[in-house]
Amino acid sequence: MSQSITVPVTFIRSFKYRTTCYLPLSNIPQSATVKDLFDRIHHGKHHIRYTLQYSCLEVKISSVIPSPFKNLCYDALKVRHKAFNTKSGELLIDLEGDPIPSNSDLTLESLGIVNETEVAVFKMSDFLAQRDNPEFLW
Prior knowledge:
Helices cover 16% and strands 25% of the residues. It has three helices and five strands.
C-alpha cells in the first residue's frame, strides 16, 4: 500500500500579476498519477465524500479558495520546492524547463514528490506566454 502524503498546492491565476492561492491537499496516495491529482482539483464537486480521506479538500466546494480560482481550468503542474531542500529565489515558479501536463500518467513518486513537496498548478498557455515574454505588473 502506498503512503499518503500532503501536497501543498499553489494555484496560479495570473503570472503577470502574481495572483496565487495556497492550499494543502491531504491524504494523497504517493502512487497517484498527475491525472488523479488534477481530477481531484477539477472534479471535487462531483466526488463529495464524507470520509476522512476526502474531507481535507474538494477544491470546487472549498470555502477557502476564492471563486476566481475555482473556475479556472488548470492544466499543468510544476514542482516549486522539494521538502527539506533549499528554495529558489523565484517568487512564483522557475520559468525554465517544461511543466507537466494534467493528463500525464506519471506518478507523484516518479516525479520526486514526497510529503510536503510544494507544487504549483496553472494554465499552460499562461505559463508559455509568461516564459516567452516575462512581464510582472506589481
